[in-house]
Amino acid sequence: MQLKNPILGLCQQSTFMLSAAKVDQCPDDEGFEVAFAGRSNAGKSSALNTLTHASLARTSKTPGRTQLLNFFKLDDDRRLVDLPGYGYAKVPIPLKLHWQRHLEAYLGGRESLKGLILMMDIRHPMTDFDLLMLDWAVASGMPMHILLTKADKLTYGAAKNVLLKVQADIRKGWGDTITIQLFSAPKRLGLEDAYTVLAGWMELADKGAEIAE
C-alpha cells in the first residue's frame, strides 16, 4: 500500500488550453498556475512532457522554438504554463525583446501564479538567465524549485556533487527558500519530488491522498 500523490492524476489528464503572445491573451487570472522556465535547450519541454505523461510541450533539437506562453489545463482551477526559452543566440533581437517584455509582465502581474519551476542543464548550471530568475524570485517572494535536468548525462556521484555545489551557491547568494533536485526525463529520475512540490503549490497536499494498491 502506498499513498498516491494527488497531483499525479491531474497531470495525467492535462490538456492544452491556449497559447498567448501577450499577457492580455492569457486565461482568466484565477485559480492556481505553476510556470516552467529555463534557458533554451535546458530540457524544459522534456521535463513537462515527462511530468504529464504526454507530449504536451513541443520538444526540438533546435533551441528557442517555444515562442509563446503555453497553458495546459489540469482541472478547472489549475494550470501549468510553459514559458518561452531564453538565451538562444540565433533568435532575432526584436523577438527576444518581445519575449522579455511579456514574460516580465506575466511574472510580475499574474495573481494566480503560485510558483516557478526553473530548469537548469546540470552540465551548465547558473547561467546569466538563471541568475536573473533567482534574483527575480527572491525579490518578488515567488516560490521557486529548480530541476537540475539531464542528470543522466553524468554519473550519479558527479551529479550529486553538482547538486551540492549549486545548492550551496544558491543558499549563499539567495538564502534557503529556493529548493533544488536532480531530474532526468529519460530515466524518470526525480518525478516524485517534483510532484510533491507541484501538489503543495496547488494546495492539493492537504486534500488527502488516494490509496493505491
Automatic annotation (TrEMBL):
Annotated source species: Pseudomonas prosekii
Q: Name one GO biological process term.
A: division septum assembly
State a single Gene Ontology molecular function: metal ion binding
Give the InterPro entries listed for this entry.
G_ENGB_dom, GTP-bd, GTP-bd_ribosome_bio_YsxC, P-loop_NTPase
Which family does the record assign?
Belongs to the TRAFAC class TrmE-Era-EngA-EngB-Septin-like GTPase superfamily. EngB GTPase family.
Q: Does the keyword Metal-binding apply?
A: yes
EngB-type G domain boundaries:
30-204
Per its database record, what is this protein's job? Necessary for normal cell division and for the maintenance of normal septation.
| HAMAP family recorded | GTPase_EngB (MF_00321)
**Top-level taxon:** Bacteria
Q: Does the keyword Cell cycle apply?
A: yes
Any one cellular-component term (Gene Ontology): cytosol
Protein name, per record: Probable GTP-binding protein EngB
Keyword annotations from UniProtKB, A to Z: Cell cycle, Cell division, GTP-binding, Magnesium, Metal-binding, Nucleotide-binding, Septation
Cofactor(s) essential for the protein = Mg(2+)
Segment forming the signal sequence: none
